[in-house]
Amino acid sequence: DINGHAATTSAAAPPLSPQVGMGCAVSSLAFPAPPLDREFYESRGLLRRRDLIYLTTSKNERIPAIYKRSPHPGGKNDDNRLTIIYSHGNAEDIGLHLPFVDALSYVTGCDVLSYEYVGYSLSRTDEGADPSESGCLRSIDAAWRYLVSDRQIPANRIVLYGRSIGTGPTVDLASRSSVEGLGNIAD
User: Fold this and answer.
1) For a designed S-S bond to 112, which of 61, 97, 103, 105 qualifies (C-beta 3.0 to 4.6 A apart)?
2) Record's superkingdom (predicted)?
3) Do the strands 83-87 and 52-56 form a parallel or antiparallel pair, or are they unpaired?
4) What is the DSSP letter of 157?
């Protein structure tokens, strides 16, 4: 039961067909996207949020994200404000952690970009995508591009925050970055 919505599980997994292969088996075990339908996200208010945006990965996959602006001013202007890229944990998705994202922004005084992984939530229900490690990496890259290129946020004003499986893409992005002082929180 995920917040009142039934989640079905099976004690025995079906045998793998020769076409599926080990990669798909590992992905389905390592990246268990919550089995929720579009109605769940409508009922949680995700689709009505004014801060819901869509990002595009390098493979033209469309993923939802919440860009929560802090209610606290960042001094005389917002140039000093930090922005957190939040990579959620395993068996979670953007619709399940909305209260956490709102609280994270409020408590820290930071803007928060919480993005979805390819194959999770609306990316799964609307696009039919499957979750994978490479999809997670493409997703965090899309979040980074959005902040640095589209929003023109200086890279040294961005903090990477990964929880559980979200530490994977977070640490990967940090390891590829040449930005001095890039903050990285692995929870």
Assistant:
1) 105
2) Eukaryota
3) unpaired
4) G
